C-alpha cells in the first residue's frame, strides 16, 4: 500500500496509519521533523487565531511542538516525549476536542520509521490515549481516523495536473 | 450518538440555512440585518440561527445592545477535518513532500 490506510483492528482509544514513502529513511525523518511546516496542512490544522506559517518540533526530549503565526505568535500543540533520530519519535498532542491547547491532555503520537528496501521507508503512526478525550473520544477518533477521500481526490487531481 | 459534524451536515441540508450562513461570510450581523432582503421572516431566521448555533456553525456575542451572529470558524474547521480525515490528509501531504525531496537529492 502506498496510501495511508486505516487499520482493520479497531482500538477505540487509538488510530493507526501506515504510509510507504519512496525516500530513504534519513530523508523521511528529516522531512517529517525539520520541514513539518512545509507539508502540514496549516491552513486548517492549526489552533491559533493568526494565519499559521510554520510548525516546529524542537529536536530533543522535552522540546516543544508548536505552530508559528504570521504575526510572530506561537501556539503550542504538545511536546517531544521520545527523540530517536531516523527511527522513532513520540510527541504529546495536547489539543482538546475544542481545538485548544490543554497541557494536561497528553494524547500521544508515536511515529516509527523503518527501511523498506534501500530507497523506501515505511512510516507507521499511532495516535493513542484517545480515552483522554472522555465523552468526546468517539467524535475525536472519527476526525483523526476517517479515510481522507477528499484529500486523495485532490492529490490525484494534482498528479494529473502536473503530468 | 450524533456528533457536531453530523449535526452540521444536517443543518446545511436546508437552503435557507445555507443562505443565512453565506450572509455571515463578510462578517458578523444582527438577526435584522440577516433577514433583510430574505424571503423569510425574522423569527424564522432566528430559528435557523438557533439550529446553526447548535451545530457549532455560528456563534453569537453582544455588541452593546445588539446580538451579533458570526461564523464559528472552529466548527467549520472541525467539519473539514472530519470530512477529510486528519491523519490521512497530513500523511498524504508528508509523503508527497518526502518523495519530492528524495527525488531532488537523487538528481544532485
How would you sum up this structure, described in words?
The complex is a heterodimer of chains A (163) and B (108). Chain A is an alpha+beta fold and 163 residues long. Chain A has one domain: 2-Layer Sandwich (Alpha-D-Glucose-1,6-Bisphosphate, Chain A, domain 4), CATH 3.30.530. Chain A has four helices and eight strands. In chain A, strands 1-2-8-7-6-5-4-3 form an eight-stranded antiparallel β-sheet. The longest helix of chain A is centred in the C-terminal third of the chain and has 14 residues, at 149-162. Chain A is globular. Chain A starts with a strand and ends with a helix. By secondary structure, chain B is mainly alpha-helical. Chain B has one domain (4-107): Orthogonal Bundle (Arc Repressor Mutant, subunit A), CATH 1.10.10.10. Chain B has helices spanning 4-11, 15-23, 31-35, 42-54, 73-84, 86-107, and strands at residues 58-63, 66-71. Chain B has a two-stranded antiparallel ribbon with strand order 1-2. In chain B, helix 1 (4-11) packs across helix 5. The longest helix of chain B is centred in the C-terminal third of the chain and has 22 residues, at 86-107. Chain B is elongated, with a radius of gyration of 20 Å.
List keywords for this structure.
heterodimer; A: 163 residues; alpha+beta; Alpha-D-Glucose-1,6-Bisphosphate, Chain A, domain 4; eight-stranded antiparallel sheet; B: 108 residues; mainly alpha; Arc Repressor Mutant, subunit A; two-stranded antiparallel sheet; 6 helices; 2 strands; 11% strand
